[in-house]
Amino acid sequence: MFEWEKLGRMFNPSEVTNRSWIREFSQAPSVLVRGNVVRVYFACRPAPDEQGNYVSLSAYAEFSRSNLFELKRLCDEPLLSLGERGTFDEFGAYFTSVVDRDDGIMAYYVGYTRCKSVPFTINIGAAISKDGGLTFTRLGSGPLLPCSVNEPFFLTVPRVKRFGDIWYMWYSAGKRWVATEKRAEPVYHIRMATSPDGVSWVKEDRDLIDCVIGDNECQACPDVFWYDGKYHMFFGYRSHVNYHGKDGGYRIGYACSEDLFYWKRDDSKAGITISDDGWDSEMVSFPHVFELDENIYMLYLGNHMGRDGFGVARMISYNE
Q1: Fewer CB within 10 Å of terminal CB in the chain, N or C?
Q2: What does the longest C-alpha to C-alpha distance in the chain come to?
Q3: How far does Cα 170 stand from its chain's mean position?
């Protein structure tokens, strides 16, 4: 079981006053450590349009390595422009995983476009940086990992890690759309793909994580790391309805594996949940675990699926 000490909220987008494109949300944080700074990439949104529609963009914030609550720098412009008309990322291009590669830094991102019978469809894109992660260029106009015969609805929130010579991508694939009183709601479960180079991917083509709150459980943003002789996965899960508040909102789940392919779920070992009050008192989600100066930290979202920013917790103990 893990035990985490919540240290507090690192970033609140509502406090950003000089960048109109960072007005709300700071989702899917992903860390790169560079010298004396910890750079956190995240997804953000400007204010919605007159019809209430959002677009999603990508940003980074740099924090002091010695004080994770000291904001040193915030990028001036979105890291990727929105896609061209008709492309898969016309209305959203937001980073969810940023990883070092031999020839630069790879960013894996979610691209989405709007639909008529359902609210959206999503595919996974990629971009590369040649200047240390400050600017990025798409690998191409199309998705890196698209929908397919057995994954027909959408693919979202990829997390990528390289273990040895193999790249692994864990992502969520849409299972179905469920009609509700207000709109069609998505159901999505965690899957994975592997690659020799981080660009050409082969899907495993099966769900990895059992459901605990029914077949319509939604699972997102699986983050994997190696510790104490096994692989550990933290992820977010929620109900497909009533998920905007405390009752059906996101919680952080946990699973472990010996081989990265087969996972045993036991959420009681996650060691982190909602607080009694404050910015993360209704939900916690989208975990990202990283090591820094002999400590292990977790970034995570709070209420309203990241509208209220992201915080950080420090691992203080682990036992079987």
Answers
A1: C
A2: 52
A3: 10
